[in-house]
């Protein structure tokens, strides 16, 4: 088995990726992260009263974000039809999660459908239809012809380790798959990611910190942005510093190294304020 379970502070387990040099979840709680950073900010609990809810889970991994969403939706409305598209480059992650029984804490029906999804990549069950599209999400998303989604979970490894899924071009593509009142959510509060979401013509807000970790980001189309939780003045100013230079990948095909290098060059000639000045200013204000 390629992955070894590691415990997190809420008692749930995650994996560590030696390829990306990073854990799949926050050490403060993998399960808690799925609920607080992904499910709650997308308003799925309110949307569960609808007959149908559609989810796009980018970087499906162990499947925790989908599991947390299903639990929240079916708790409110067991008859809600949930359609899920998961995008994932490595099928062995979800399969290892099942083999190690890491989904055992979720409802038995959820365990059953997600175990089937990990093995056969396609499931049709009462109130549930799902497909796991394997490959680079930059390419599988371009092939996706499905109706738009109520919620999009954006959960790649961090921008320095996986910049290809945080670029202006990729997020512009993702934004096209949101319903007019749909919400995208991510654990990241990176200024470069927030700038890319704005460049993708989305409105952004801040989600609550989980454990000692920083805030995340929630985004939606302009028409649905009225109740978006606002960025603090400190967070807004962060977007005016060099940290906000976004990642770019025009043909959605560049390597991580090329994307990092391109951003570094743009950063060097940027006329934006150095981020260290912003940090110092806010340290003295606190
Ligand atoms: C932080 S983990 C996601 C955790 C997951 N959402 C969960 O709840 O378990 C990132 C995932 O992105 C996948 N990944 C990395 N690069 C990818 C790419 N280019 N396209 C699709 N998936 C990718 C990794 O295999 C890994 O499973």
Primary descriptors:
binds S-adenosylmethionine; alpha/beta; 12 strands; single chain; Rossmann fold; 21% strand; eight-stranded mixed beta sheet
Describe the structure.
The protein has 286 residues and is an alpha/beta fold. The chain contains eleven helices and twelve strands. 36% of the residues lie in helices and 21% in strands. The strands form three sheets. Strands 7-8-6-5-9-10-12-11 form an eight-stranded mixed beta sheet, with helices on both faces. Helix 1 (30-39) packs across helix 3 and helix 7 (168-175) crosses helix 8 (191-199). The chain is globular. 43% of the residues are buried. The structure holds S-adenosylmethionine. The site of S-adenosylmethionine has 22 residues, from helix 3 and strand 6.
């Amino acid at each position: 088995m390629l992955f070894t379970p590691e415990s997190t502070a809420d008692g749930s387990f995650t994996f560590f990726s030696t390829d990306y040099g990073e854990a799949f979840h926050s050490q403060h709680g993998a399960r808690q992260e799925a609920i607080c950073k992904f499910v709650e900010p997308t308003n799925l609990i309110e949307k569960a009263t609808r007959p149908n809810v559609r989810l796009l889970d980018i970087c499906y991994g162990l499947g925790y974000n989908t599991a947390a969403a299903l639990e929240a939706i079916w708790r409110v409305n067991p008859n809600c039809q949930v359609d899920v598209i998961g995008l994932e480059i490595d099928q062995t992650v979800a399969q290892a999660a099942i083999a190690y029984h890491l989904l055992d804490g979720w409802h038995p029906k959820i365990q059953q459908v997600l175990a089937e999804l990990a093995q056969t990549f396609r499931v049709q069950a009462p109130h549930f239809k799902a497909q796991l599209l394997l490959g680079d999400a930059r390419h599988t998303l371009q092939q996706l012809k499905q109706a738009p989604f109520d919620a999009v979970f954006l959960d790649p490894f961090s921008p320095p380790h996986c910049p290809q899924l945080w670029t202006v071009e990729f997020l512009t593509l993702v934004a096209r798959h949101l319903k007019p009142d749909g919400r995208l959510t991510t654990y990241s509060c990176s200024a470069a990611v927030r700038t890319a979401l704005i460049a993708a013509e989305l409105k952004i807000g801040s989600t609550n910190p989980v454990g000692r970790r920083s805030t995340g980001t929630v985004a939606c189309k302009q028409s649905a942005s009225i109740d978006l939780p606002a960025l603090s003045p400190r967070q807004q100013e962060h977007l005016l510093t060099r940290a906000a230079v976004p990642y770019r990948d025009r043909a959605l095909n560049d390597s991580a190294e090329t994307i990092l290098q391109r951003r570094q060059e743009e950063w060097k000639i940027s006329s934006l304020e150095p981020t260290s000045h912003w940090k110092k200013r806010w340290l003295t204000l606190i």
